[in-house]
Amino acid sequence: MGDSRNLVVLAVVRVKPGYEEVARQELVKLIPPTNREPGCLRYQMHINVGTEYDNYMVENPRLYMFYEIWRSREDWDKHMEM
């Protein structure tokens, strides 16, 4: 009997200073085709909107997080080969 558990991936991308806008544009382009890949159940991009520091929210436009759910490790492996 096979393992029917999904694979959940939390990936963090740190962008080099000066590349914030181009990185955002390119990373957003990944979302639709990745969500259409076989085995992809969810692929979401999140940008750091801030952390509380001294009662202020500090934005970090260089920090992205991808929340991914794949049907199996094999599906994710195929995604990573692309």
UniProtKB/TrEMBL annotation:
Residue ranges occupied by any ABM domain in the UniProt entry: 7-82
PROSITE patterns from the UniProt entry: ABM (PS51725)
Alphabetized UniProt keyword annotations: Monooxygenase, Oxidoreductase
One Pfam family linked to the record: ABM
InterPro entries registered for this protein in UniProt: ABM_dom, Dimeric_a/b-barrel
GO molecular function: monooxygenase activity
Protein name: Antibiotic biosynthesis monooxygenase
Organism: Candidatus Caldatribacterium saccharofermentans
